[in-house]
Amino acid sequence: MADRLWEISLELHRNPELSHQEHRAAALLAGELESFGFSVERDVAGLATAFVGSIGSGASPRVALLLEYDALPGLGHACGHNLIAAAGLGAALALQPLIQATNGSLLVVGAPAEEDGGGKIAEVEAGVFEGVDAALMFHPGVHNWSWAPLTAMLELRVTFHGKAAHPTGNPQDGVDALNALIRTFNELDVLRRSLPSGSHVQGIITHGGEVTNIIPDFAQGRFALRALTTSALDRLVDQVRACAEGAARVTSASVVIENEGATYAHFRSNPVLAGTFSRHLARLGISATEPQPGVYLGSSDIGNVSTTVPTIHPFLQILPPDHSDHTPDFAAAAGGEYGKAAMLAAAEALACTAFDVLSDPAVVEHAWTAFNEQAAADRSG
Ligand SMILES: [Zn+2]
Ligand SMILES: [Zn+2]
Question: What is the pTM of this model?
Answer without folding.
Answer: 0.93
